[in-house]
Amino acid sequence: MLKKILLIAGVGFCGQAVAAPTQQEVLHHYADLAQVMYQDSLDTARQLQVAVDQLIASPTEKNLLSAKVAWKQARRPYQQTEAYRFGNAIVDDWEGKVNAWPLDEGLIDYVAAGYGAESDENPYYTANIIANKKLMLSGREIDASTIDKRLLAETLHEIDEIESNVATGYHAIEFLLWGQDLNGTGPGAGQRSASDFDTRNCSWGNCDRRGAYLKAVTELLIDELAWMTTQWDKNGAARAALLEDPRKGIATIFTGMGSLSYGELAGERMKLGLMLHDPEEEHDCFSDNTHWSHYDDVLSVKNVYTGSYTRVNGAKVSGPSVSQLVAAKNSSADKTLLKSLDATLDKMQVLVDSAEKEGVAYDELIGEGNTEGNAKVMAAIDALLVQTKAIEKAVNVLGMSSIAFEGSDSLDAPETIQ
């Protein structure tokens, strides 16, 4: 459970002063950076759509693999937008439509017997939208004979405000492409077969509806990313809200950086799963892509702080940044934060190398009894905590009145975790 921790900021003046951009210049570039990041997310989602359409038209293992590759490629620019959460209300209010997790996959499709038939927390735990043309939701019968964007987004997503009823977004697509990961903390990701989409040689039934769901949820992802991209254009609502008060706008940037570093990534996405040794707490749990998601979250914080981003096509975007604001007040604090960001990326690279080079995925690293793997994950968490302290120091240097970072019981009250 996320909770707030309050950082009271003071003023620090040591180190050599350097010229700085104006707050307005920094905010305009921060908004420009958001627009190109979301545009890259949109463009790669459209490439995913092409691969999905090819899979549905010709359900071969080769086309399924191509769709999986496209999904992984689409994740990378999106994860680098995550430092825009928390401070920007428009992003926070929207984010659950595209990146909500974890999800109760039995809501969407067939699951293995070991998944169980019911949950005390979720009456729709095994609703199986794909298999059922009629659903009973909140005491009323819903016509689900046609699986389309409206059904998923307006009727089924987070039914009864239960967060694990995730019917849309990246992770719903991920589940449809990979299926359940039944390996626990052992080797291997989900192993869905292409025949799950083959209406002429259908495994597990309902292949036409499974394809319709995959098509609709991918199109819906594109719609949402297109909407968010426009929120950051010259007349966009997100940009306008940011620019209303320059001082609050700068605080927004640091709120996103600190909250993602501390409560969200170090806490909810990493420490919690490590404490419980639970692969269900892994962010990309069906695809075993979590190492890249964590790496790109840290990269997101660095992008925002430095005002720099490398686009999918290799083009580099850079401009006025909060790093320059901090350096103008206290060059030592700026260097400390830059150094800590690089140190965290180094620890995340260890997790990437474990998965990509050594064949040991993130869910294996957090497994009970894996002392070496646990230590690698804990080292990355510790680096995030050091990074958060450096962000606090930067906040103090700028003399901000107060900034609230998201917390996590796994960090702030570990004795409550069971």
Strand-and-helix sequence, N→C? EHHHEEHHHHHHEEHHHHEH
**Radius of gyration from CA coordinates:** 22 Å
| Helical segment count | 14
Shape type: globular
Helix vs. strand class? mainly alpha
Integer average pLDDT: 94
* Tally of DSSP β-strands: 6
Largest sheet: 2 strands, antiparallel
Query: What proportion strand?
Result: 5-15%
Unreliable runs, pLDDT <50, ≥5 residues? Answer: 1-18
Estimate percent helicity: 55-70%
Strand order of the biggest β-sheet: 1-6
The N- and C-terminal alpha carbons lie at a distance of 12 Å
Structural key phrases:
two-stranded antiparallel sheet, 14 helices, 6 strands, 7% strand, disordered N terminus
Question: What's the helix and strand layout?
Answer:
Elements: E1 2-8, H1 23-57, H2 61-79, H3 89-99, E2 134-137, E3 140-143, H4 149-156, H5 170-178, H6 207-231, H7 237-243, H8 246-276, H9 290-306, E4 308-310, E5 316-318, H10 322-329, H11 331-356, H12 362-365, H13 371-397, E6 402-408, H14 409-412
Give an account of the 3D structure.
The protein is built from 14 helices and 6 strands. With 418 residues, the protein is mainly alpha-helical. The strands form 3 sheets. The chain has a two-stranded antiparallel ribbon with strand order 1-6. It has a two-stranded antiparallel ribbon with strand order 2-3. A hairpin with a 2-residue loop joins strand 2 and strand 3. The longest helix is centred in the N-terminal third of the chain and has 35 residues, at 23-57. The chain starts with a strand and ends in a 6-residue tail after the last helix. The relative contact order is 0.17. Mean pLDDT is 94; it is low at 1-18.
